[in-house]
C-alpha cells in the first residue's frame, strides 16, 4: 500500500485571527458588508503551510501575493518582514504546530459609489490546525473547462473569484472523485480546480506551462526544483488529454497536500519517481 500526505483540517472556535491590525477571536473576526472582496470579489489570497511551526517558503508566497496585487491595481505597501512577523505571531498565539494560514487582502470597503474603493486595504489572516495522516493515491476525473466559468489570467493569480473551480470541485465530489482536472478547448491539460498536476513518462517529468493560464504553484515550483536536483529531466510542453493513458505516473500538488499521487478510470501506477520526489521534499522542507 502506498502512503502519502493528505490533510485533515480542524478549525477551533477559540482560534485567534488577524483583522485589519487587531487580533480577535474567530467568532469576532467579522468582514464588513461593504468589503469589495465580499461585494465584488476584488482581492487575492494565499494559503501558507507550516509544520513543526516552520513556515513553508513564506518568501515565495509573499512574492506571488505582491505581484498578483500589483497586477490587479492594488497598492500593497506591507513589507515582507511585517507580513512574516504576523504569520509567526498567529502560529504562536494559537499554539498550533502544524497547519495552514490563509492571508486575504481586498482593495477595501466600497463607498457611496459602488466603484469607489477609496479606503485602506482590508487584511485578514486566519489559521487552522491540520493533521497530515497517511492515505492512498486519490482518484481524479478530467473535465472540459468549457463546462465551468473558469477565469484564466496570464500570469494566473489567486483571485477571490473561484466560482468555476468550486462548481467543478462539487461536481467531482458528487461523482466520487477527489479532484477535477481540466483540459481546454484544444484538449490540452491545464490544471486541477485548486491544484497543479504532473505526469511522468520515460523518467521525464511533465507539467502544463503557466502560459496556459495555470497557477504558478509554490509546491509546483518546489517539485520542479527537486526533480532537477534528483537529475530528472523536466518539460513544460503541452500534454494532451488523448495521451494521459500513455503516462507512467501522475500526481497532483498544492501547498496543503504536498505531492499526492493520483489515478483515473482504467489507469494506475506504482508511483516510484513520484514518491522519490515526495520523500525528498518532505526531508528537505518539513
Can you offer a commentary on this structure?
- This protein has 286 residues and is an alpha+beta fold.
- The protein has two domains: 4-134, D-amino Acid Aminotransferase, Chain A, domain 1 (2-Layer Sandwich); 137-285, D-amino Acid Aminotransferase, subunit A, domain 2 (D-amino Acid Aminotransferase, Chain A, domain 2), CATH 3.20.10.10.
- Helix content is 25%, strand content 29%.
- The strands form three sheets. Strands 12-11-10-17-16-13-14-15 form an eight-stranded mixed beta sheet.
- Strand 3 (16-19) and strand 4 form a beta hairpin.
- Helix 5 (218-229) crosses helix 6 (272-285).
- The model is unreliable at 1-7 (pLDDT under 50).
Extended strand count: 17
- What is the element string, with H for helices and E for strands? EEEEHEEHHEEEEHEEEEHEEEH
Which class of the largest domain in CATH terms? Answer: Alpha Beta
CATH topology of the largest domain: D-amino Acid Aminotransferase, Chain A, domain 2
Oligomer: single chain
Which percent band covers the strand fraction?
25-35%
Our count of helices gives: 6
Main sheet: strand order: 12-11-10-17-16-13-14-15
> What percentage of residues falls in helices of 4 or more residues?
25-40%
Alpha carbon gyration radius: 19 Å
Largest sheet: 8 strands, mixed
Which stretches are low in confidence, meaning pLDDT under 50 for 5 or more residues running? Answer: 1-7
CATH homologous superfamily assignment of the largest domain? D-amino Acid Aminotransferase, subunit A, domain 2
Which structural class best describes the helix and strand composition?
A: alpha+beta
- Tell me, what's the shape? globular
Distance between the termini: 23 Å
How many structural domains does the protein architecture include? Answer: 2
Global mean pLDDT: 92
CATH architecture of the largest domain: Alpha-Beta Barrel
Amino acid at each position: 500500500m502506498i502512503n502519502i500526505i493528505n490533510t485533515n483540517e480542524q478549525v477551533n472556535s477559540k482560534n485567534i485571527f488577524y483583522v485589519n491590525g487587531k487580533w480577535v477571536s474567530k467568532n469576532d473576526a467579522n468582514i464588513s458588508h461593504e468589503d469589495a472582496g465580499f461585494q465584488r470579489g476584488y482581492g487575492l489570497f494565499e494559503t501558507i503551510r507550516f509544520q513543526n511551526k516552520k513556515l513553508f517558503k513564506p518568501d515565495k508566497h509573499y512574492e506571488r501575493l505582491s505581484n498578483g496585487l500589483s497586477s490587479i491595481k492594488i497598492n500593497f505597501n506591507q513589507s515582507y518582514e511585517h507580513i512574516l512577523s504576523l504569520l509567526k505571531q498567529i502560529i504562536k498565539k494559537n499554539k498550533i504546530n502544524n497547519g495552514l494560514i490563509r492571508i486575504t487582502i481586498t482593495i477595501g470597503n466600497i463607498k457611496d459609489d459602488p466603484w469607489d474603493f477609496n479606503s485602506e486595504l482590508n487584511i485578514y489572516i486566519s489559521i487552522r490546525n491540520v493533521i497530515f495522516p497517511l492515505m492512498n493515491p486519490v482518484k481524479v476525473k478530467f473535465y472540459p473547462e468549457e463546462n465551468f466559468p473558469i477565469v484564466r489570467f496570464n500570469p494566473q493569480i489567486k483571485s477571490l473569484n473561484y466560482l468555476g473551480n468550486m462548481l467543478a470541485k462539487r461536481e467531482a465530489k458528487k461523482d466520487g472523485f477527489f479532484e477535477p482536472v481540466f483540459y481546454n478547448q484544444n484538449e490540452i491539460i491545464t490544471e486541477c480546480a485548486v491544484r497543479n498536476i504532473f505526469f511522468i513518462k520515460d523518467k521525464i517529468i511533465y507539467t502544463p506551462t503557466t502560459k496556459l493560464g495555470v497557477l504558478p504553484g509554490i509546491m509546483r515550483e518546489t517539485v520542479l526544483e527537486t526533480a532537477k536536483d534528483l537529475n530528472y529531466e523536466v518539460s513544460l510542453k503541452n500534454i494532451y488529454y488523448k495521451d494521459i493513458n500513455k503516462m507512467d505516473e501522475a500526481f497532483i500538488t498544492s501547498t496543503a497536500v504536498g505531492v499526492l499521487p493520483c489515478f483515473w478510470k482504467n489507469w494506475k501506477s506504482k508511483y516510484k519517481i513520484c514518491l522519490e520526489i515526495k520523500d525528498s521534499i518532505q526531508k528537505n522542507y518539513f
